[in-house]
Amino acid sequence: VSFRLWLEHLGGQKAQRKAMDVVPSSDGANNLANAPSSNGNGDSPAISEAKESGSMQSFLQTLRRTFGSRFLCYLVLNYMFLKGMVFTMLQTSMLPYFQKMGVKGVEFQLASVVAMIPWSMKGFIGVLSDIVPIGRFHKRGYLLLSAMLGGFGVCVLGLWRPGEGHLWTAAALFGCAFTFLATFDLLCEGKYSEMMREEKAGSEVLTFVWTMCQWGSLLAAAVLYFVIDSEGPRPVILGCLPFAFVAFWRTWMGDLHEEPARSWKSLRAKAYSEPELFLLALLMACCGSLVVALATAFWGRQGRLLAAVSVSVLLVVFSFRTLPRVLARSNLYMFIISISYLDLSGPLSYWYTGTDGCVPSGPHFSYSYFLAVSNVVGSAGSMLGAVLFQSMQSWSFRSAFRVTTFVQISASLFDLFIITRMNLTLGIPDAFAYLFGDAACQSIAAQMIIMPQALLTARLCPRGAEATVFAILAGFQNFGSNIGSILGAQLAETYGIQCSRLGPCNFESLINLIILCHILAPMACLSFLFLVPTAKMNDEKAFATDSPPPSFASPSPSPLNSPRVSDPDSPEPEGDGEYFLLQDDGMVVRQLSG
Q1: Cβ neighbours of 232 (radius 10 Å)
Q2: Distance (Å, rounded) from C-alpha 233 to C-alpha 256?
């Protein structure tokens, strides 16, 4: 949708400016008090005019009127330079950084799990900032602390030259940097979502944010292309440090405007309104993230497996106790498919970039090609995946998950195509086969897998607790990916996969491992599709709610009454003090509020 809107804005003619005085307020936002509130579609007149005129100038003017120039610049900092550029530079620098440390492929994959743990803790960070402010404001203290933590991690990684024995220290430092990025991403997203509701804004900001992320990723690819092979990963990592300083400075200056926090009594009442939801977020952070990270680093193969399985079962059971049943069932399916594509990124990355001592007849890709050039093609593939998904909007969720799973499986065939060297038999060079086969198709498949998950989560989130529940469910999916990485590393060790960049390496079982982890395991998950509602993705009435359920902002906790089924032929549920959710067979579930 964002891509289509962006094309509409680019393709229009230059708009005529509206004769309207915009008076800056003291906090840098724009005063639109004298403007009409909205049109019949719920959009402000400025937004409607921008949509009709379709020019870049009116697009930016609309954003400035809604969010103010100061906060708009803060969004550019966060999404273009932090989430887009810095995230890409740090994530792609991990492979050469650990390879130069002498880390083996499976160990690199496990270290990546530890480094990415903060993205699974976003739900807890959001809940904690909501009920335990640092200083006078809810978000600012957490943003400042995370910027200092990220700056520390980046500085040490850029200046330190660790050996193989410091694997987990380096992974923890990358985790510090990703904590900085995850915190800014979450809290800034919460702020612009809040402003969208207050200003009755349209989807322009989503288009803007998505575009900034893509531009930032392309800038990072350009930096990597010219620097990573000649200078190594450390200058790339140090190049992220100024952005941490700028993020700290602009946050300190109040570019993200907030109202002062309420009294502690009010905040305690807010936390007590949904204690089990808060406890689920806490379990996700402590058990789902920290315990698994410690087990990955220090508990060995059996300890990792035991921790991954036991923590997963604990979180799933507690989610069924806390969340509405239909939401919990759908979350379980999305958790399963996040695990099922068992990650083999460590062995595969070493196979593609290994030297003659590791893979004598391999592709021997340079870092600039494997990380930078393929990233550009991958971005284009993600855009194409988003566009292709739009043609599936009239499908049911079950059909969408079924098709996207087969697309993901089909994309994995390109790895087999290259590793078996069939491409050379057909006269197709490795670089061409990887770039327009593996890199592009994997990105298309990944985007098409993500989009129905995000849409189903958004449809089922109960009103009044959208941000909290959405963050928790996103944490479940990130945690599922981490579990998939751990299980993939376990299988790689079991199959005897051994790899280091200079060799010697053993990839004899890699083909069988790809078939098991990337083809058979995802196909097996299709048997759990009964957990997903049968409704169509564009059927908003099926997911409509009457009154919002209790949330962190509610005065009393939500009861755990057993739901009863209402008449499925009734198009509009009626009732006072109740809310409605969809059952897996398409019937409406009525859950009483008292």
Answers
A1: 15
A2: 32
Run of H or E including 286: none
- In three-state secondary structure terms, 31 is strand
**Phi, psi (rounded to 5 degrees) for 459:** -65, -40
Alpha-carbon gap, residue 462 to 591, rounded angstroms: 12
Q: How far is CA 515 from CA 216, 311, 522, in A?
A: 35, 27, 10
**Computed over its alpha carbons, how large is the radius of gyration of the chain?**
24
The dihedrals phi and psi of 574, each to the nearest 5 degrees, come to -125, 155
Which residues lie closer than 8 Å to 181 by C-beta, 6 or more apart?
A: 82, 83, 86, 87, 90, 118, 150
CA pair distance 588, 341, nearest whole angstrom: 32
Tell me the average pLDDT of the chain.
78
Element at 580 (helix H, strand E): strand 578-582
CB 446 within 8 A of CB 383: no
Structure tokens at 366: 């340079």
Angle separating helix axes 140-159 and 122-131, nearest 10 degrees: 140
Least Cα distance to 84 among 240, 251, 250, 252 occurs for: 240
Residue 7 has pLDDT above 90, yes or no: no
Q: Per-residue DSSP letters for 293-347?
A: HHHHHHSHHHHHHHHHHHHHHHHHHHHHHHS-HHHHHHHHHHHHHHHHS---HHH
Q: With left for phi above 0 and alpha for psi between -120 and 50, is residue 323 left, alpha or beta?
A: beta
Start-to-end CA distance of the chain, whole Å, equals: 39
Q: What is the pLDDT of residues 487-538, one digit of tens each?
A: 999 999 999 999 988 888 999 999 999 999 999 999 999 999 999 888 888 7
Tokens of 165: 């024995």
Which helix (H) or strand (E) is 163 found in, with range? none
Euclidean distance between CA atoms 349 and 499, whole angstroms: 10
Assign 23 to helix, strand or coil.
strand
Whether a cis peptide bond, with omega within 30° of 0, leads into 504 is yes
pLDDT tens digit sequence for 141-187: 999 999 999 999 999 999 998 887 899 999 999 999 999 999 999 88
Side-chain-side CA neighbours of residue 208 (13 Å): 26
